[in-house]
Amino acid sequence: THVAAGRGFHLEHGDHGVWAESDEDLAALRPGMRASVVGFPALGAWNPVLKDATFRIEAAGAPVPPRAVTAAEARSGAFDCRRVTVEATVLETFERGETPGAVLQQADTTFVAEWPPGTAPAALANLQPGSVVQVTGICLNKRPDGMWAAFESGTYDALVRPQRATFRLLVAGTDELRVVRAPDWWTPERIWTALGALAVGALAILGWNVALRRRVAAQTEIIRAQASREAVHEDRTRIARELHDTLEQELTGIAVQLDAVSDRLPESPPAAATALATARALLRHTRTEARRSVWDLRAALLDEGDLATALRATARHLDGGPEIRVQIAGEPRRLAGAMENNLLRIATEAMTNAVKHARARRIDVRLEFSAHAAALEVRDDGCGFDASRSTTLAAGHFGWLGIRERAERIGADLEIGSEPGAGTRVAIRVRTPAAAPEASQSAAKTAPPTV
Length: 451
Description:
Number of domains: 3
Strand content: 25-35%
Strand order of the largest sheet: 1-2-3-5-4
CATH architecture of the largest domain: Beta Barrel
Order of helices and strands: EEEEEEHEEEHEHEEHHHHEHEEHHEEH
Number of strands: 17
Distance between the termini: 109 Å
Radius of gyration: 56 Å
Structural class: alpha+beta
CATH superfamily of the largest domain: Nucleic acid-binding proteins
Helix content: 40-55%
Number of helices: 11
């Protein structure tokens, strides 16, 4: 079944195998030949051996088919010196001196497959740990305190610790090794490499995240400071505009009226008294506008909600006098900041006039939204006045003049209707951009139609 040049050969007969040592020329022997052997029996490491054997070739034949066995069966000694096939997993390969081989494992049994000295199978060069292979060779057993059967292999004993293998296979050539399954790509080394790479990546991401958070926090602080500066600038700009549009003009009017008093007092005391009354009215109105300019940089109520909410809050602030009803029609939506602010100031001025001067018992405020416009109406049942004269500067009604100026600022159409004893109606309509459907539906859900 196997020829070891210069040392001997293995024989099989039935279910038994034997090693025959011979000094004769073994070149004519081939695996599969039938031969008669004569020699001196001696004790071997496991089975008896033949010493100083001679042989005679009887006939040629095919190699003996190997017996497929498990590692446990091969370890038992029942297949010593017999040709067997074992399927196992490669642990490592080695090539020291002239003896190449591989360390294999099946279940809990570890063993070695060796090739004859001087051979270096190409199959071993590409054999990867973890591969499952099927290897065919002569099974060689040894007793726990004995030497390897058939012949000693000092090279192997120097490479592999005896306790790692309980038997070994002597393989004749490369055609007796077949790879059944390639090793898994995820070897322990690659797993540890991948885990190390993931750990490095996680640390890098963590560091980047911390740095990004710091940068975001710093940028947020910069934006907050810039927004604060812009808010202060906007407040200063508005105060300057308010002073120029209202207070400065009205103070100029007061100065003119006082000059008229100074000029007319010696000649016409009644005319001087009229100019003085006008100056006093201007002064009162200027004081009111100054107070509003200080606390109402943009109506605080509009910062907390939309125009409809601000109108309801204003009506509550005027509670205690007439009944004030606020009605919202259409789909409420937010308007431009200047537009909402001026509409709220107009409504506040109209309601204040109705409470203080008209002695009204009921005030109706209606805010209506359409696709391209918003309309505001304030109606009261007070004493009314002559709208043709009382809304001019000459009449001393500066509140009505302020309403007209605010309507002009936002390009709105203003209508003031009143007669003595018939109440007052202030109506204003301003064109607005069309609202997005989603915003209109959302606003309609949050604002009830009537309060």
